[in-house]
């Protein structure tokens, strides 16, 4: 990164500019444009305080009652065999907060949009593309001003010297409380709560969007040059109410799903299976984790949140809570050979296609949609409904999960395993790719024929043993 000195109201300030802007402006200096000298600096590393920004993921349901922790917003209705503990939702639609706006990372697939970082107290995303993507940026600014609480400050800047320089400065007009910090213009003297700027060099466009750290992006469904996409909550039972049955189990009011405490029902494209469910708080990892495992102890679904989050009846955690923006996850479409074990603040991972999948930046990977609804929660039990939609079969995976919250002992992971257990297999000793069978089905390239082969992920191949612990289950 580079700094450049500039003056405003007679006082000298410094503006941080990326190297590509400084280089383009230096070229303008050689042509007598009078640009100012630059000096190197560093961009700060990204830091996301999810506890202070819960609106990034918890969305307010249209028509849903406001509730307190452990309550469902009404007096429970009891029949001889069941008690209604959570109302059905009126709609799968969501109403987003005043501080949320349509993210550029969702709006166009021709621009490459970078992960969210922080610099000078602002949130920043870089972007790059071709010269024609300038039209997409203009349309994006029009969208922010027409559908969201933003207004242009002054006139958009567009000037061709050697390269072309452009900038849009926007002012937030909504009701959300922002940081109060204004971002100064790069090429103009305007100040605002958001700035979109960049350069066009031949057919190459580069730029960045800076916005107040109290603002949050989400997918509003708008797509440049295309029809809008559906962004309602997903899952066949996402709007269902919840009953506590006379035997202590929990069932959705649509009659589709039922799970005893400590169990989960997993539905993959309509085919259901019974699983084990745990809900564990860990001081060591500072998180609360919900884990669903099959009859062989193989993880099928895992999601976790910071330990500071409070699970409240009626909450919905949308995909923005779980999106992973790290390049190593994005490049493979969010797919991993084994259950990811990273220090992400939140995660939703699903067994799918012989591996595990997480949602990634722009929901551009193998997982297309995901949401988790806290159906019911009190001090003794929590019931979750989770649904993910994928780009290949099984296309929709749902789970109704009922589990008692427990605390992991010191030295234990949230999933309940000893800290000496192998994190790849969860201590089972089984290969996560084949489930311990030693065999996998593979599609022969160009033939459309499926064959069974030895699993090459096992160590040794075909043994069914976890490749990281050799079957011992320990590190």
Q: Structural class of the helices, strands and pairings?
A: mainly beta
Quick check: average pLDDT?
A: 81
Largest sheet: 12 strands, mixed
Give the helix proportion (percent range): under 10%
How far apart lie the N and C ends?
Answer: 42 Å
Poorly predicted tracts of residues: 1-15, 28-75, 443-449
Rg calculated over all Cα atoms: 25 Å
Tally of strands: 36
Q: How many helices does DSSP assign?
A: 4
The geometry reads as globular
How many domains?
Answer: 3
* Beta-strand percent range: 35-45%
How would you describe what is shown here?
This protein has helices at 19-30, 104-107, 133-147, 327-330, and strands at residues 2-8, 11-17, 38-40, 60-61, 77-78, 82-86, 94-95, 100-102, 112-113, 117-119, 122-130, 150-152, 157-160, 164-172, 183-184, 191-192, 194-201, 204-212, 216-218, 242-245, 250-252, 258-259, 263-268, 271-282, 287-293, 299-306, 316-317, 335-336, 347-352, 355-357, 367-377, 382-390, 396-403, 405-407, 439-443, 450-454. The protein is 7% helix and 38% strand. By secondary structure, the protein is mainly beta. Strands 23, 24, 25, 26, 27, 28, 29, 30, 31, 32, 33 and 34 form a 12-stranded mixed sheet that branches. Strands 9, 10, 11, 12, 13, 14, 17 and 18 form an 8-stranded antiparallel sheet that branches. The chain folds into 3 domains: 2-42 and 98-218, no CATH class; 54-90 and 234-417, no CATH class; 420-475, no CATH class. Keywords: Membrane, Transmembrane, Transmembrane helix.
């Amino acid at each position: 990164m580079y700094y450049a000195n500039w003056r405003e109201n007679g006082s000298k300030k410094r503006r941080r500019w990326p190297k590509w802007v400084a280089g383009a402006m230096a070229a303008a200096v050689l042509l007598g444009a009078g640009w100012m000298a630059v000096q190197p600096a560093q961009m700060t590393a990204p830091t996301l305080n999810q506890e202070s920004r819960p609106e990034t993921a918890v969305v307010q349901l249209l028509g849903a009652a406001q509730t307190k922790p452990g309550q469902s917003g009404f007096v429970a209705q009891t029949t001889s065999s069941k008690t209604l503990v959570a109302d059905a939702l009126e709609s799968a639609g969501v109403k987003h907060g005043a501080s949320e706006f349509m993210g550029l990372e969702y709006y166009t697939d021709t621009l490459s949009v970078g992960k969210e970082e922080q610099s000078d107290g602002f949130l920043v995303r870089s972007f790059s593309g071709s010269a024609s993507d300038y039209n997409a940026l203009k349309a994006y600014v029009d969208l922010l001003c027409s559908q969201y609480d933003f207004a242009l400050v002054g006139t958009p800047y567009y000037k061709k010297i050697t390269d072309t320089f452009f900038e849009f400065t926007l002012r937030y007009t909504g009701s959300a409380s922002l940081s109060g910090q204004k971002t100064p213009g790069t090429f103009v003297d305007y100040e605002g709560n958001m700035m979109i700027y960049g350069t066009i060099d031949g057919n190459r466009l580069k730029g960045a969007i800076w916005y107040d750290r109290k603002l949050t992006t989400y997918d509003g469904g708008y797509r440049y040059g295309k029809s809008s996409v559906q962004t309602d909550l997903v899952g066949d039972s996402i709007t269902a109410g919840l009953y506590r049955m006379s035997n202590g189990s929990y069932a959705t009011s649509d009659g589709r799903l039922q799970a005893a405490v400590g169990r989960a029902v997993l539905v993959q494209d309509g085919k259901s299976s019974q699983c084990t469910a745990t809900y564990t708080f860990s001081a060591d990892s500072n998180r609360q984790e919900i884990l669903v495992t099959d009859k062989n102890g193989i993880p099928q679904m895992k999601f976790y949140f910071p330990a500071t989050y409070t699970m409240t009846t009626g909450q919905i955690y949308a995909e923005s809570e779980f999106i992973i923006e790290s390049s190593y996850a994005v490049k493979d479409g969010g797919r991993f050979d084994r259950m990811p074990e990273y220090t992400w603040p939140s995660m939703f991972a699903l067994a799918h296609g012989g591996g595990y999948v997480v949602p990634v930046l722009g929901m551009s990977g193998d997982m297309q949609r995901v949401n988790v609804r806290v159906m019911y929660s009190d001090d003794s039990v929590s019931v979750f409904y989770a649904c993910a939609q994928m780009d290949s079969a099984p296309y929709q995976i749902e789970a109704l999960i009922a589990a008692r919250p427990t605390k992991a002992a010191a030295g234990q992971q949230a999933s309940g395993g000893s800290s000496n257990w192998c994190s790849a297999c969860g201590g089972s000793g089984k290969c996560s790719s084949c489930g311990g069978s030693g065999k996998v089905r593979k599609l022969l390239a160009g033939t459309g024929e499926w064959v069974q082969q030895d699993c090459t992920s096992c160590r040794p191949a075909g043994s069914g043993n976890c490749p990281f612990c050799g079957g011992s289950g320990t590190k």
